[in-house]
Amino acid sequence: MTNKILSLFLGIAFPYLLCGQGETANWYFGNGGGIRFNNDGSVNAVADGRLNTFEGCATISDAFGDLLFYTDGITVYDRNHNVMQNGTGLYGDPSSTQSAIIVPRPQDPNIYYIFTVDTSSFENDPDRGLNYSIVDISLNAGNGSVIQKNVRLLDDCSEKITAVIKNCFEESVWVITLSTPDGAPVTDFFDTYHAFEVNTTGVIGTSVKSTFPDLKIQDPRGNLKLSSDGTKMVSANAFSGLFIYDFDPVTGIVSNQERLTIDANNKNSYGIEFSPSQQFLYVHSFNNNIPISETGHSSSLIQYDLNAPDISGSQIVLETRSIYRGSLQLGQNGKIYRTLAQSYLLGTPYLGVINNPDEPGLAADYQHNAVFLGSNLATQGLPPFVQSFFNKISLIRNSDGTTEATLEVCNGDPFTLEADIVPGATYHWEKDDIPLSNPGNIFQVNSAQDIDSGRYRVEIIPADPTECPIIGESFVSVNPIPEANTLTLLQCDVDVNDPSDGITQLNLEQVFFNDYDFKFYETILDRDNDIPITNPVGYTNTQPFNQTIYYKVTDNLGCENFGILELQVAPTDVIATPPKTYDICDEDLSDNVLSGTFDLDFFRQRHYPAFEAVFYASALDAALEQNSLPDNYNSESTIVYARLERLNQCQGIEQVTLTVNPVPIFDFKDSWLWCTDGPPLELVAPAGFDSYRWLKLDGGSEVEIAATQNTSISMLGDYELEIGYIYDLNGETLRCTNRKSFVVNPSNRAVINEILIEDISDNNTIQIEVAGDGIYEFSIDGETYQDDNFFDDVLPGFITVFVRDKNGCGITEELISVIGYPKFFTPNGDGINDSWQIIGADASFQSDSSISIFDRYGKLLTNLNPQSPGWNGMVDNRALPSADYWFKVVLEDGREFRGHFSLKR
After folding, report:
1. For the chain, how big is the Rg over CA atoms in Å?
2. What is the pLDDT of residues 317-375, one digit of tens each?
3. How far apart are CA 458 and CA 443, in angstroms?
4. CB-side neighbour CA atoms (13 Å) of 785
5. Cβ density class 278-292: b for 16+ within 10 Å, e for less
6. Where is average pLDDT lowest: 61-75, 235-249, 809-823, 844-858?
7. Closest CA relative to residue 432, chosen from 772, 717, 39, 798
8. Residues 195-254: tens digit of each pLDDT
9. Separation between Cα atoms, residue 821 and residue 839, nearest integer Å
10. SS3 assignment, position 602
11. Is 302 exposed, middle or buried (0-12, 13-18, 19+ CB in 10 A)?
């Protein structure tokens, strides 16, 4: 507690310590997202945040890294993540790019100002401009309280805000935003930067204005950032452009406007940040080509070199990706973090990170999805801070003179931290807020241990009291070296020539663990001279049965250790006793290749339950443990090798014969017809196979109706015929079957419902109406059939009509009469046409019909009935002369018709 009190006293007594220690240690943002920076430079995701913001947010911690409060610009949450007393209704907006920034009041450890920036995000949404509220962190049992809210500074402004310390002697902070000259609601564009001073007396309500008549910013979106030394400022304005300026932290004046072009496909600037050395500028640009609520946007990450003569020409696109726009923010560990949203409404559980932002181009080492946030999401915003918190030099110097903020060393290795040499200056070193006894500019550790991990900080106080102190800070992480125990590799001798000589090929890489890198050496001298074995996979031991070799293990951080590997080779017979076989059936009958999928996991569990068994295509692969076969192994008939292990040590290698057996291939019709009015359908399967099954399919189920080569079917519907080969495999049976689906459709003889006859005419017709399941054809002579059921030009008389089922189920026939009469008769006794009578009427058809014959004057000559021989041209034994005569017929069915005929003599 004493050290914390001392550090706090120094922070109050010397306002330049506002250059920051732990004030930026906690970040809260997005949908419950949060991270904490540790003293060794690492970052942990935290899940206790309560923000739910699309963009703007702000967070502040104390000098020791303990959270004080955070906000989305409307609601303030205290250190316990409860709504702060009186902490609602601030005039920020979660849809504002930078909805808030938190500024401590100089010389007062309890008072903080929350500057809020509003925006209008929907119709009738008021835009309240720039306001500030005051928090007294000492109230409410140290949880803080908002003691004043929404003090108006500007009626309207852009969605951006930034802050920087005025200088190390004047105890003031500049807060800058973009607005109109008088801060009135914008009607056209923004063109004026307003710098408001915050000093020991509070917020000065009159701003220092810097107007650029040619600026004309219409798009309010995008970040505003100052460099940590306060000399440069960059303004991102989405569609309205990206601009860089000089800033005078003494006067608050912005000058020397320069527009930066973006050559990437995504030309609209949003997120911006300076590297720790302030040499490089990073921009997160976007395209916004599709609706903001949808995914599929594109963004680019761009680096500019601010020391280049042509800054725009120095740009390097580090990456382009299908994500939404997002913010960039420098962390206290010297890395820059990037949000990775999918759309305006949908975030992701990751942050990207630029690991080495002071390096040019790809050496900056951008890592996507670097920080996992668990179940919480980052959206578009990250919390901005007073940029002076990051105004620190790095203490880790590279051989080329560049510096870095973080260092990872291995346990036992030395490291050196080096600050600038300032003649006559006093150096105050500390680690994790604890003073270190080290008067010079260099701090050195000869053998790093776990306790040496942490945040190192030096305060350089020049001899000239008019010069500002210099703060140096870096983070050191001491990583443990990997374990290097004595390892044993037990190998099976699978040499073809002599499997019992103790000499074989080995895969030394089997000892790999934890993704570490291993190098192997035959002797200690080779290890000391770093002459490794060149073929660790396929290494042949030089000493039979037992040999000691040496290894070096290196983890992914470069930490290394040394150990011993004992090789043991056991004689091995690869032929199993009794021989092991695995038979399956051919899977694809269309390729003319016998192949199938072997379930090696099933075989493993059945035959090797006491071993760790892995299968290989060759004995050498099995020996070297390379190219292992998948559990579902598709192959033709072949031989594979099972490597048997216990505790990762070879216990033997066995040969396994895999056999693919043929499956029946047969032809069978897709459909059959059954004469439902006849006997059952008799079906016979192809001969020459071992097993038969006839299956009736019904609603997804199947019922076996026969297990013989032939069967009788008396039900319509869907069926399957299964034919198989049966293989006897040492007492076990393998049945390889093939199925063919078929359907049984109905057919039968026709039922004649009606025969429509149009007769006693010049064109007699017949139409036969039938019913039934068959496909029918029709005939009136029993020999010639037609598909049409209609016949015309039918001669009168007695006719048998025939209806035949084309499927062979039989013929239906029926006798009918077609009524007609002769046009003339010649009663001359020659036996031909000697009488006249109605045709098609006799004792069985129309027998009750009446026929009357008249002369041309209508005199009744005679009456006939259909059974009589007909009229012979005689009346009262008198032969009538040749002439036309008339008749009237009344048929039994009620029809009546008249006509005439000729008598010829």
Report:
1. 51
2. 999 999 999 999 999 999 999 999 999 999 999 999 999 999 999 999 999 999 999 99
3. 10
4. 14
5. bbbbbbbbbbbeeee
6. 844-858
7. 39
8. 999 999 999 999 999 999 999 999 999 999 999 999 999 999 999 999 999 999 999 999
9. 5
10. helix
11. buried
Which residues lie below 8 Å from residue 500, measured CB to CB, with a gap of 6+? Answer: 493, 571
DSSP labels for 617-678? SSHHHHHHT-SBPPSEEEEESEEEEEEEEETTEEEEEEEEEEEEE--------SEEEEETTS
Whether the Cβ atoms of residue 129 and residue 156 lie closer than 8 Å to each other? yes
> What's the predicted TM-score (pTM) here?
0.64
| CA–CA separation, 776 and 49 (whole Å) | 82
Cβ–Cβ < 8 Å for 705, 711: yes
- Does residue 10 register a pLDDT over 70? no
Q: Given strand 765-771, what is the order of strands in its sheet?
A: 751-758, 765-771, 790-791
Which two structure tokens, joined as six digits, stand for 524? Answer: 């200690």
Q: For residue 786, what is the DSSP state?
A: B
Give all strands (DSSP E) within 708-838, no chain letters: 710-713, 717-729, 732-747, 751-758, 765-771, 776-779, 790-791, 797-805, 811-818, 824-825
Instruction: Report how far apart, in Å, the C-alpha atoms of 882 and of each of 753, 828, 838, 858 are.
Output: 46, 11, 20, 16
Residue 543: left (phi > 0), alpha (psi -120 to 50), or beta? beta
| E-only strand ranges, 118-241 | 130-136, 145-154, 162-165, 173-179, 192-199, 202-203, 208-211, 224-226, 232-236
Give pLDDT tens digits for 709-751. Answer: 999 999 999 999 999 999 998 888 999 999 999 999 999 999 9
Q: Positive or negative, the Cα torsion across 699, 705, 711, 715? A: negative
Query: Which neighbouring-strand residues pair with 720?
Result: 695, 741
Residue 17 has pLDDT above 60, yes or no: no
Determine the 3-state secondary structure of 597 from DSSP.
strand
Write the DSSP symbol of residue 880: P
Q: Looking up tokens 């500074």, which residue turns up?
A: 153
Distance separating alpha carbons of residues 65 and 49, to the nearest angstrom: 16
Question: If residue 71 lies in a helix (H) or strand (E), which one and from where to where?
Answer: strand 67-71
What is each CA distance from 775 to 557, 669, 742, 750, in whole angstroms? 84, 19, 20, 9
What is the C-alpha to C-alpha distance for residues 772 and 753, in angstroms, rounded to an integer?
10
State the amino acid at position 669 in one-letter form: K
552-588: pLDDT as tens digits: 999 988 899 999 999 999 888 787 778 899 999 999 9
Q: Which residue has the tokens 């399956």?
A: 584
With contact defined as beta carbons under 8 Å apart, do 478 and 453 qualify?
Answer: yes
Task: Report the distance separating Cα 625 and Cα 899, nearest Å.
Answer: 109
